[in-house]
Amino acid sequence: MAEVRRLPVVALLVCLLVVAGILGRPAGAGGAQAVALVVPTPSLAPALALSSSWYCAGATSPGGTAPGDLLVDNAGPGPVKATVSLVWSSGAASQLDLSVPSGSDQLIPEDLPASPFFSPAQWVGAVVTLFGGMASVSQVISTHEGSASQPCASSTSSQWYFPDGAVLRNASDDISLLNPYPEAAVADLSFTTELGQEAPDAFRGVVVPAQGLTVLDLGSHLRRRSQIAVTVTTRAGGIVAFQTEIVTKPPARAPRLGTPGALDPVLPQPGTGLTLGAAQPSTSWWWPEGGDGPGFTERYVVYNPGGGTAQLDLSLVAAGAGEGLGSSQQLTVGPYGTSVLTINGQPWALPGIAYAVHMRSTNGVAVVAERSVTAGKPSLYRGTASLLGEAVPAEQWLVAPNVQVLEPRIRLELVNPGTRPAVVSVESVSDGRREPVAGVPALVVAAGQHGEEALSGVDTDQVLVVSSSQPVLVEKDSYAVPPATGVSLAPVVVLTPGG
Amino acid sequence: MVAEPGAPPVVAVVVTCRPGTWLEETLRSLAAQDYPELSVLVVAVGDDDGAIANRVAANLPDAHLARAAAGTGFAQAANQGVEMVEGAAHILVCHDDVAPVPSAVRLLLEEAYRSNAGLTSPKFVLWDAPDRLLAVGMGADRVGVVNSLIEEGELDQGQHDVAREVFVAPAGAVLVRTDLWRALGGFNPGIGQPGEDLDLSWRAHVAGARVIVAPQARVRHLQADKKGLRTGPAPTPERLRAERERHRLRTLWTCYGFAALLLIAPVSVLFALTECTWALVHRRPGRHVLAPLAALFGSLRRPRELWQGRRRTQNLRRAGDFHLWKLQTRGSARFRAMVRLRLERGHELAWVAARASAAPQDSAVGPAVTTAVGPGFPPAAPAPLGAVPASPLSEGPLSEGPLSEGPSSEGLSTTGSVSNGVPNGASSAGLHPVSSPAGPLSNGVSSAHPYPATSADGERRASAAVLAAVRRPGSLLSWKTTAITCAVVVVLLVIGSRDVLSQPLPLVGQLPSLSEGVGGWWHSWWNGAGAGGLSSSAFAPPGLLLMGVVGLIALGSANFAVHILVFAPLLLGPWGAYAQTRDFGSQRGRLAATILYAALPIPFNALAQGHWAGLIAYAVSPWVIGMLCRLGARAPYPFVPWDRAWPRLLALSAAVALAGSLAPAVVLLVPVLGVSLLVGSLLAGRGNGGFRYLVASLIGTVVALVALAPWSFASLGSWSSAIGTPSGALHALGLSDLLRLQTGPYGGGPLGWAVAVAAAIPLLIGRSWRLALAARLWVVVVAFLGLAWAGSRGWFPVPPLELLLAPAGAAMVLLVAVGATSVEVDVPGYRFGWRQAVPAIGALAVVAAALPLFSWVGNGQWGAPPSGAESAFAFPTGSQAGDYRALWLGSASSLPLASEGSVDGVAFATSLDGLPTAAQLWAPAPSALSSLVAADLRWTEQGETTALGRLLAPLAVRYVVVPTGAVPALDQLVTQLAQQVDLVPVGADPSYRVFENAAWAPLFSVLAPNIDLPAAGGPWAVASILQRLDLSADQPLAATSSGGRPLAVPAARSAATGPAPPVVVLGAVPEGTWQLRSGGRELADQTVLGWASAWALPTGTRTVTISRESSLGQHVIDIVMLVVWALALWAAVLRLRARLGTQLTLVSLDAGAAGTGVAEIDWSRALEGESLG
Hints:
The structure holds 2 protein chains of 2 kinds.
Chain A: H1 7-30, E1 52-60, E2 68-74, E3 80-88, E4 93-100, E5 105-109, E6 123-131, E7 135-143, E8 146-151, E9 159-162, E10 171-179, E11 185-193, E12 196-198, E13 206-208, E14 212-217, E15 228-236, E16 240-247, E17 271-276, E18 284-290, E19 296-303, E20 310-318, E21 328-333, E22 338-342, E23 355-361, E24 368-375, E25 383-388, E26 394-399, E27 409-415, E28 422-430, E29 433-436, E30 443-445, E31 450-454, E32 464-479, E33 487-491, E34 493-497
Antiparallel strand pairs in A: 1-6, 2-5, 2-7, 3-4, 3-6, 7-8, 9-15, 10-14, 10-16, 11-12, 11-13, 11-15, 16-17, 18-23, 19-22, 19-24, 20-21, 20-23, 24-25, 26-32, 26-34, 27-31, 27-32, 28-29, 28-30, 28-32, 32-33
Chain B: E1 10-17, H1 22-31, E2 38-45, H2 51-59, E3 64-68, H3 74-83, E4 90-94, E5 98-100, H4 104-115, E6 119-126, E7 133-135, E8 138-140, E9 146-148, E10 164-165, E11 173-177, H5 178-184, H6 196-206, E12 211-221, H7 237-255, H8 258-281, H9 291-298, H10 303-315, H11 321-327, H12 333-358, H13 427-430, H14 439-442, H15 459-469, H16 479-496, H17 498-501, H18 517-527, H19 542-553, H20 558-579, H21 587-599, H22 602-609, H23 612-632, H24 646-662, H25 665-683, H26 691-707, H27 711-715, H28 719-722, H29 735-739, H30 753-765, H31 768-792, H32 801-825, H33 838-856, H34 878-881, E13 885-890, E14 901-903, E15 906-912, H35 928-941, H36 948-952, E16 957-963, H37 968-978, E17 983-986, E18 992-997, E19 1004-1006, H38 1019-1026, E20 1035-1036, E21 1047-1048, E22 1064-1070, E23 1074-1078, E24 1081-1082, E25 1086-1088, E26 1092-1096, E27 1103-1108, H39 1112-1149, H40 1163-1168
Parallel strand pairs in B: 1-2, 1-4, 2-3, 6-12, 13-16
Antiparallel strand pairs in B: 4-11, 5-12, 6-7, 6-11, 8-9, 10-12, 13-15, 14-15, 16-18, 17-18, 19-20, 19-22, 21-27, 22-26, 23-24, 23-27, 25-26
Helix pairs in contact in B: 6-7, 7-9, 7-10, 8-9, 12-15, 12-16, 12-39, 15-31, 16-21, 18-19, 19-20, 19-24, 20-21, 20-23, 21-32, 21-33, 22-23, 22-32, 23-24, 23-25, 23-26, 23-32, 24-25, 24-26, 25-26, 25-31, 30-31, 30-32, 30-33, 31-32, 32-33
């Protein structure tokens, strides 16, 4: 019998071990496969979904300060049935079943049935259950100072953040907490104002009833605060939080905010805002549209809800290659602090040029940021609006009809955060089919740049779908033409997540 | 003799009965004594014909002769003889088969005076081999079990030649002070042979006398009674044994004081019960199970005589029992004998095999036994062995052992060590050949290797080399070292388990649940797993039966049984490593393998994570690998042809079946082992015959599957049932983790590499079969590490990773043992170089690899959490609001029950009314309901529903329980669960996320009147309907807790308009699995939702009974399976017994003792057992 072979055995085993070591390194270092985080950006359920739930709050019944309407849009291939459950701050509730045909929308006023037991002016929340996918729910509030629209939330969270708010003589700020679950939730609110961190007892341990609504008027305990950042945290359960800001017309002789020595300043421009909070901070925020022309004031409010100091970089991304990348600005926000950056007048600003804005954290500390726009003279438009940054790009977006809102000056603002050009087209949905919108050509958005698609003249009562060859971020802006007032900056509902 | 004035007279009282030819030598040796004042009195028992008188007259004319009636025992005859003596200061009481050296009496007397001894004992040596020791005094433990103070048969090199105090002076020859004899009354007439020497010595101690051994005085002892050399009737060994026990106990009752007796009596009773239990488990022909108890009661016979003897003894008391305890042997002499016997049996077998392998090379093997005779002895006459009848097999460690008896008692009555059916002359002296360098050497076998380790014959012939290596002194360790090492390992394991041994085990992972109790296990095995699962397996898992049996052994304590089931692998595994390395030829290697296997992190990580299957694999891996290697019939294992290998195949199959009944995946590992060993053979250039590994593994697997039938075929038909559900990427193990076998919190850190280092040694320095075996085992290691590596990345479904790493770990420690052999055999053959450093490196590696175990024991519960699923939530009972299911989500290895399906790496399973039962540790075959749940969860995970509760409501799912932090993919699902509007987070345990389904419906309920369930439909269509239905208003029927009793039907609510709708009972169970009766009549069920059962009740029905369908066929098959198992077990026991007898015969025949009848050796069989060819 031949001698046992040592070399082949040793060599083979060593080779195997080396190969295993090489192959094992990436997986070993990276661990398990990455799992996408669920970002509670309003997003549509897939077409074959059994059900999806939408949660709306921040509006009042018609007799209140911010009467609201629900708008159900169906971009799916067939009709979708829905159950609308309205809950009032008084505890009353009502339910409504409806069916929305494909490619159409349905407006449901958040009205209160006549009752001698209830005040007609109440805050209202809505839980809309859609028995199907490819449909969204948004909410519109209309006041004397303007209108604002906001997609409803498609998920709940245990934390919500609002970077910007104010309680002044002509500014109110209300936080609506909606609990869609069959168990009560308990929430705590904490604030960062120009006076520092505040946590009034009245906002601690707030009980949000099961399938109920609780609205907190920040002005009841926080007064004469021009900068309020809010953190809502639940001890148990999940909720949805909306912020309703109403700025009325300031008294003629009242000192404007920013006037030196003013004891009781007011905000200069009336307006209405409805904001769904950010469910989580992020290290990267995008705003597809930016610009500071005459009469426009643009500012960015950054709120750092964490314990670390955030080092940020704000970049202005211009539209065309020939116009350059604009410029950037560094920003530092301390723990639990806020910072406001006004673009106008800055040496690095790009007046008269449309751009997109990108804010990113250079040291990994996540923040929440909001863009705030005030339009006044000598601009053609009047009003205020704010928009939280967007973090998740997508390849398809659902643009809700522009029902009742403002005037037809509607623009879709886009930004392509990727590295390849995106070809963007706008389609309308009709009877389950998508068709290109006449007069709206396809748009090519270069990598890392801003794009704009004007929808003026388009039938804005139909459901539109923005499709892109690359993941992009989309924002819908509406401007009321005088004599109407109001500016609305609204996110668009994600149809197909990407990027 | 020349008279020496002043010398104290001594009388030798020789009791003789039916003496053989040895009497003359006894008499002549007495006549040759150099002590002048010695007289001899021969007491002839039953010498009616005067033959003895004539022989005495012829050989010792000066002797006095007394006659005793036939049938008089030794003790009585000695008493009678001493009564006749007057004027002697000392009496030498001796048997007729002892031959003292000429100076013996003088030296005894000198030592008696020097030490002021009451009893003085000589040193006993073998009759035929005076250079071999038989006894140098005897000891006794505290319950009177006599033990030898030396190694019987060890070479007398003067190592025990120091006069010292002993507890027992053997009665073969003992010098007694006459006044003491008179005071004691001689031998106790109530305690005759055997055991009279223990009694006499003990009473002497009580009286304050000293019992001294004078080793300078040597006496040859034939042990004629023990060897059955006397003519005429002789008591059977069983009777002798019983008599000895009875006399021992009677001595206890007599000699102990009252206080000590209060302590000793219960201990003795406990010992008797333990021995009965042992005998019950180890039944052997001729041994009565109740013999220990019979001896206990027999010792109390003739109470008056017992009482008088006790009173007489206690009146003599001069020494307290506490003082005497210091003279006695600590611990249990019998237990030590048992341990020693077991440990040495392997050595003996290996040595016999070595002898067998050497035989053809050396024609001198044979009767060339040289008998060294010490100075002063006449040439020894060969013992008349040919006429010796067979004596029975050693009776086991708890009854007798080679060390528990000596030449004492009757000096002759011990049955020897392990001999059975062989001439006993071979037994006593030669049963320790391993520790006796004079064994084979004296037989002419060279101590050099019969075959060079690098022989061109390679593996087969090299087996002889390794077996011969056993004989090399360097490879030997004493049994004490082995015992101490094993004891340390056991103690460490016990210390490390201290916190969980004393309390119920937490329900972590798939550790068995004890919530139902042993009765529940039996009930579940007989009746099935119940309605908790989504599918009902047709046949109960045999593992449940095994758990029930263990529960019975644990006397019905489920807690104790679970501890046995969980912690026994910690001992079984190292035991397997020790047992399966016995053929390698290195005792150090065996110990190293044992220690290292005990110190591997695999079982502790399995315990920490509740991976019972990992523990089972850990326990069985070394056994299975060893059995497969043995069946491969490559060196160092003996060659066995296929037609004679079936017992080994049966043993392999039984081991696999037993393990597979508890951890089904183990069954599928065996073919992988077979393939790996085959590949290893090919790799090493030993492909010829390598297919035996594969064939053996396949046969073992198939037989195991058949043995587990019908459950195995019914439930293991699917991959997921056998292996587990796809779990996705769990915890991707790197190469470093794999080679250190670290799958959880336990690992040796940098020291964890030491095992791999030690395992690499045979690959680097091994030659011949050691290198070939190392190649095979390394392929096993690589194969299983590769499986674990790929499985941890989610490439295919895998069981708990410890189950895959256990064979790799077992192969590694076997490699360590092979490496030790290589160090001992191969390294000396190399020129000076780096290889000479290998022994030190190997030793360091072994020590380094074992060190972490010392730190791990500090935890006290091996990292297992203090609480498990039982603390996840206070689940309500099913009788409160109706029975319900809990849906468990997580990784398959983190669930407290076997998964029934999975979705994107998240496994799920359901249990009834809260916690799962033990029956749910085994995965049933996938069912339609599993796919329904999977679809529901997939919709949830993808955000396609926000009403999961309603989807799960018809399945009676009330709770969704998720062990946190197990699977990354679970985060997505848990996030989506939190978004479901009908799931409410409950519970406070941070280790579990628990959601209560607000929309749940009970397992059996009366459907609300306004509910209209579809009969069938696709999953999506049914689900879309369920989304809009609220079943939470259904009225519950607590069927499973009713015990089959009638249940009141809740009054159906009236419809708003129109006639009252029919009352419908909805059952969240598959159609056809449950029966509903109303008024004694079985109602036909209807199918709703495509799978659920519904019964429309006749108008006016007030009560119904709900019960599960019983399957008579299932019970019949279960019983048939039991019968087949019993028959197989019976056959295996018979065969094993036969084989054991054969092996022991070989051992005894080749014991190498002087006078061994070598002609009795069945060399052909011995050769056949080797690979020589």
